[in-house]
Design goal:
7 helices, binds 2-acetamido-2-deoxy-beta-D-glucopyranose, globular, 492 residues, Nitrilase/N-carbamoyl-D-aminoacid amidohydrolase, six-stranded mixed beta sheet, 31% strand
Amino acid sequence: MSVMYLLFSMLVCVSNAQNMERYIAAVYEHAVIHPDHTMTPVTKKEALDLMNRNMDVLEKAIKAAAEQGAHLIVTPEDGIYGWKFTRETISPYLEDIPNPEVNWIPCDDPERFGKAPVQQRLSCMAKHNSIYIVANIGDRKMCNISEVGCPADGQYNYNTAVVYDSDGKLIARYHKQHLFLGEIQFNAPNEAEVVTFETPFGRFGIFICFDILFYNPAVALVVDHNVDTIIFPTAWMNVLPHLSAIEFHSAWAMGMGVNLLSANTHNTTQRMTGSGIFSPEKIGPYYYNMDTEDGYLLISELYAHPRNSSTYNPIKWNQYASRIGKHPTGTDVFIGKVFFDEYTFTVLNEPQGNYSICQNDLCCHLSYKKEEEKEKSNEVYVLGAFDGLHVVEGEYHLQVCTLLKCGSTDLKSCGESVDLASTKFQSFSLSGNFSTDFVFPEVLLSKVHLAPNMFQVLVDGRLISQPNISSQPLLSITLFGRLYEKDPAGRQ
Ligand SMILES: *[C@@H]1O[C@H](CO)[C@@H](O)[C@H](O)[C@H]1NC(C)=O
Ligand SMILES: *[C@@H]1O[C@H](CO)[C@@H](O)[C@H](O)[C@H]1NC(C)=O
Ligand SMILES: *[C@@H]1O[C@H](CO)[C@@H](O)[C@H](O)[C@H]1NC(C)=O
Ligand SMILES: *[C@@H]1O[C@H](CO)[C@@H](O)[C@H](O)[C@H]1NC(C)=O
Ligand SMILES: *[C@@H]1O[C@H](CO)[C@@H](O)[C@H](O)[C@H]1NC(C)=O
């Protein structure tokens, strides 16, 4: 009888576990402790001491998250040793990370694959706190220099995300595909790795930082592998007006219809800040802080299957825009630069109005009404369109419709990085006849704040304001589209 009862309650427990509708996620923005700058490699012991100092900080966050009921915590890219290395100087920081198929709990069997003190400590933190942990470390794979592709120093170094489950078992390993400029210490795998894993709270996928701009594996994880939540360790340098971390990453979650757990490093001199727990229907909580050097722990409850929630509807991005006729273009049309891309802009001269602006195949349409100004502010806003290949710090084809505040009354300043505004809008509606299904909706307020509950995307592709938008000055609103098939590397 008691055995039967135990069996029964275990089954109930397991089936409950497999059907969690919601779960609690945590992300930690970490102010990484960097090693002293050196051109000669430090010893393994010195490297481990530095990594332990970072893991001491991460451990506090992990414990705090577990105490608050979090099921999983994401820590940032480069969060354990920083990002300034050559191939030689990264070497003492690397460990050989096995394929998760080997079924390994490093905490229980630390030397099964040789010494691996970093993997051991991460695994033990997961096990002892009963929480899934995502960390970013360096994987080394030896190769034979007579093999094609093997680097001259006889090893592949990978920027690697690892995941330990709440028993401390290694369940996922992902090697970053799209290395950013300056990541000379690492190699990219020959082909993008698609890494997913199942949990009682949905299916997860992983990619790292710059990967988010490309099709493989980021978009493929959602489109072909139906993940519910993306894990996103990053060391993201903010670029306004369109690529500030919280702005773009929240927009990606909304545009793709998935949860995105974004953990950034914190380093204000490198403009690195901005982490968040984003989902299609809810922005934030998020953290953005250019004033101090503090890390921060965010915790929030999420739907395990966001695309099955009643609020999710796939958006037809060009539906509205391809039905309506063109509005007037306005009188002041000019070309201006946004992060090196040449946009076609028109100035919003009136307190309210309807404008269209086109470039190549893309036409953008805007209806807007500004709040009446008590004092004349002299702030200039423009509507812009861009349809072309971005070629600086990576090549990717964009289709963008944007309303943004210029740096000054000089039109040459339109598209510059601006983070303050005083003009409020009563309403707006922005749309474009995009040739892609992949469009990311961004609304950014003065001082780089997001605008939760202040806007909405309609199923017909319009980005429209909610009434409370008028409470906050506006920096920009943007439909940031990606035309992956026009990338030089295509969908690869
Ligand atoms: C490397 O490959 C070459 C050619 O296949 C082989 O002769 C050599 O023994 C290999 N070296 C090692 C260390 O495996
Ligand atoms: C920020 O990062 C740089 C390396 O890019 C590092 O030298 C510097 O110490 C970091 N700042 C802080 C406050 O950690
Ligand atoms: C949504 O629910 C359906 C049916 O229950 C299921 O087959 C599908 O995999 C779910 N999709 C996601 C993304 O969870
Ligand atoms: C803009 O268009 C809307 C609806 O299409 C219309 O109601 C409004 O009067 C127009 N505003 C201006 C200033 O033309
Ligand atoms: C977008 O609209 C413009 C103006 O109506 C049109 O010339 C262009 O071909 C349209 N683009 C697409 C992809 O349909």
